Amino acid sequence: MKPEPLVHKIDCIRLSVPDLEAGLAFYRDALGHALLWRTATAVGLHLPGTDAEIVLHAEPGEPEIDLQVRSADAAAQRFQEAGGTVVVPPFDIQIGRAVVVRDPWGNEYVLLDTSKGTLLTDDEGNVVGNAGHPEPPTSDKEANCRAQNTP
């Protein structure tokens, strides 16, 4: 019997921009990606056909791929057992837990879970908290339902 896939979906592609307003002018206004949420240092933009996001950060850094898993802690252990490397051990993030990993070929990325719930926003997209979900989604259908029901 094959093991359950570790990664359940792409959560986001994270890109650094020197200024959030300039990033929004390009990605939202010129390229048409709708604003989903906003904090003081980041914005999430809609990718049509998926619930994955483009996340613009006003912090310097390389592009980052974030992949969603059921549990970042369990994923870290399974990843190491399979021959990968944990670069940064599991840590807390606003929506759950995350871990930075590197596969045997040098590809580095983030595995994260949404164990603390998805972002809750006001009418203008400003993050005002979490739409708390005590358990991570048990299926892609549940995850999509949660994302669609987040105001």
Q: What is the CATH topology assignment? A: 2,3-Dihydroxybiphenyl 1,2-Dioxygenase, domain 1
Radius of gyration: 16 Å
The secondary structure category is alpha+beta
Number of helices: 3
Main β-sheet description: 8 strands, mixed
Number of domains: 1
Number of extended strands: 10
CATH superfamily: 2,3-Dihydroxybiphenyl 1,2-Dioxygenase, domain 1
**What fraction strand?**
35-45%
Q: Key terms for this structure?
A:
151 residues; alpha+beta; 2,3-Dihydroxybiphenyl 1,2-Dioxygenase, domain 1; 8-stranded mixed beta sheet; two-stranded antiparallel ribbon; 3 helices; 20% helix; globular; disordered C terminus
Could you please describe the fold and organization of this structure?
With 151 residues, the chain is an alpha+beta fold. It has a single domain, classed as 2,3-Dihydroxybiphenyl 1,2-Dioxygenase, domain 1, CATH 3.10.180. 20% of the residues lie in helices and 38% in strands. It contains three helices and ten strands; from the N terminus they run E-H-E-E-E-E-H-E-E-E-E-E-H. The protein starts with 8 loop residues before the first strand and ends with a helix.
Fold blueprint:
Blueprint: E1 9-16, H1 20-30, E2 35-38, E3 42-46, E4 53-57, E5 64-68, H2 72-81, E6 85-93, E7 96-102, E8 108-112, E9 118-121, E10 127-131, H3 140-148
Task: Briefly say what this structure is.
With about 150 residues, this protein is α+β, with helices and mostly antiparallel strands. About 20% of the residues lie in helices and about 40% in strands.
